[in-house]
Amino acid sequence: MYIWERRGLGDNPATERKRITLAMRPRPYLKLDRFVYNRASLTPRLKAMVGSLVKAVELSWKSTQPIKVIRLIGHTDSTGPEKYNVGLGNRRARAVEEALQDIFKGRITIIVEPSPGETEPTADNRTNDGRERNRRVEVFITTGVVTPPPPPPPPPPKKPLINLWDFSKLKLPPESVIITKPDPYSGQIHPGPKPQSLEARIDELLSGVSSRWLRGKIRNAILSGACALLEAWFTQAGGQLSEKQKEELRKRCLEAAKKPIR
């Protein structure tokens, strides 16, 4: 499908618009797919995915890249008339919007964009699985940047102490009669074990995730401080991570996000 985008009112009509294909659009942050055929209501699975999205947004507010805007675009499969599918796609996006508004209550901007209906499939409509994947709402996010506070001013220089006494004429006492010697039986105190690195701890927590690709995605998200992406990867990990492991990984991600960028 091609999308026509207006450029400027004073431009040449021959170059006033440009064509944008689906492949040129940015990738969605999340796909809420597999809506029930000809329905716009959220299934328990979709409600759980919306809950994970809410957690990711709230975690991002504590990082240097808080999510400011959520855009929603509803889609359908190729079944049914095109005009009807446009309305169905819009109703699906509004169902997700209502679920988010009930939780955020105006704390974030949510925009529902016009649905393209059936005209932007991402899977094969000739199969049942492909049609289920095309019945979706795509979620796009816009993040802001939190400017860190300026460093505190340096402390004022210390005033030199006034020497009220002149000790230059004082004589030191003779060498002490008692001379201590090191105990030959005392051994050196060995330092304790080195603290475990952040990367090693993350790899240890992710050892139960079977997919090497998914482990790499979660690991990179934590080390880069992209905590907004972390909850989406947790959803794909399913039950391979315990809640205790997830909480520690979230904590590691927030620590990485607070580190200054060099």
Number of strands: 6
Question: How is the largest sheet built, in terms of strand order?
Answer: 3-6-4-5
State the order of secondary-structure elements, H for helix, E for strand.
Answer: EEEHEHEHEHHHH
Largest sheet: 4 strands, mixed
Mean pLDDT: 80
- Kindly provide the radius of gyration, computed on alpha-carbon positions and rounded to a whole number of angstroms: 30 Å
Number of helices: 7
Helix coverage percent of residues? 25-40%
Termini separation (Å)?
42 Å
Which parts are unreliable, with pLDDT below 50 for 5 consecutive residues or more? 1-11, 13-18
Secondary-structure content class: alpha+beta
Percent range for β-strand residues? 5-15%
Shape: elongated
Question: What does this molecule look like?
Answer:
With 262 residues, the protein is α+β, with helices and mostly antiparallel strands. It has 7 helices and 6 strands. The strands form 2 sheets. Strands 3-6-4-5 form a 4-stranded mixed sheet. Strand 4, helix 2 and strand 5 form a beta-alpha-beta unit. Helix 1 runs antiparallel to helix 6, helix 4 packs antiparallel against helix 5 and helix 5 packs antiparallel against helix 6. The radius of gyration is 30 Å and the shape is elongated. The chain starts with a strand and ends with a helix.
Please give the structural blueprint:
Elements: E1 2-6, E2 17-21, E3 30-32, H1 44-60, E4 67-74, H2 82-104, E5 109-112, H3 128-134, E6 137-143, H4 198-205, H5 212-223, H6 227-237, H7 243-258
Parallel strand pairs: 4-5
Antiparallel strand pairs: 1-2, 3-6, 4-6
Helix pairs in contact: 1-6, 4-5, 5-6
